[in-house]
């Protein structure tokens, strides 16, 4: 008996006119579990599988579903079916093909979100390019902010990343990365739009011993004394406090006459 296993639907979006690939086995755990399975792609509601002919605009190649390129009418649900003699797994993907907002190079409803810290060297990643970067497709990526080409010495293009030196809150905003991809002797544009938030890193207050000052305590000879250690630190209660004499923990000295408490 064949058992059907249904998996939740994943959302995938792409700009109209650009290539799209969907990996049925993106979940590597699932991939290992189904090494001996057969795999076929369908558009939901259709009995005929997606063709494996590479010249077709939409085709299957191994476990990947390719759109070369995607058009608005491709929006809809697709399913990857994996089966063997005992079980059948169906993984659903919802594809949205969108247009950019009029007058802009992006659509605010379809942005990747990335957060980086200020006052440091940070990077923005141009995401999901794995299947479009190979020995035949090594052209550089061009980066834009608010649709303007970035031309600033603080910004460095490195592989799929944009390095920002001394990032600050003014670097927040809409970024776009663009490249070209050659496939079957045709050239396609690929872009990713990212909203970047630069957050201020709170200043870390240096740990300070408020009492005893200068590691000095004045007491009367032979008296019983309880001394509190007061510490100010950005780490709040997460710091460890210990009492030492000549860099040796007091619990190992004085035969128990001097003991360390909670403070």
UniProtKB/TrEMBL annotation:
<keyword id="KW-0677">Repeat</keyword>
<keyword id="KW-0393">Immunoglobulin domain</keyword>
<dbReference type="InterPro" id="IPR004074">
    <property type="entry name" value="IL-1_rcpt_I/II-typ"/>
</dbReference>
<comment type="similarity">
    <text>Belongs to the interleukin-1 receptor family.</text>
</comment>
<feature type="domain" description="Ig-like">
    <location>
        <begin position="17"/>
        <end position="80"/>
    </location>
</feature>
<feature type="domain" description="Ig-like">
    <location>
        <begin position="212"/>
        <end position="263"/>
    </location>
</feature>
<feature type="domain" description="Ig-like">
    <location>
        <begin position="124"/>
        <end position="191"/>
    </location>
</feature>
<dbReference type="GO" id="GO:0050727">
    <property type="term" value="P:regulation of inflammatory response"/>
</dbReference>
<protein>
    <submittedName>
        <fullName>Histone H2A.J</fullName>
    </submittedName>
</protein>
<dbReference type="InterPro" id="IPR036179">
    <property type="entry name" value="Ig-like_dom_sf"/>
</dbReference>
<keyword id="KW-0325">Glycoprotein</keyword>
<dbReference type="InterPro" id="IPR003599">
    <property type="entry name" value="Ig_sub"/>
</dbReference>
<keyword id="KW-0732">Signal</keyword>
<keyword id="KW-1015">Disulfide bond</keyword>
<dbReference type="InterPro" id="IPR015621">
    <property type="entry name" value="IL-1_rcpt_fam"/>
</dbReference>
<dbReference type="InterPro" id="IPR007110">
    <property type="entry name" value="Ig-like_dom"/>
</dbReference>
<dbReference type="InterPro" id="IPR013783">
    <property type="entry name" value="Ig-like_fold"/>
</dbReference>
<dbReference type="GO" id="GO:0004908">
    <property type="term" value="F:interleukin-1 receptor activity"/>
</dbReference>
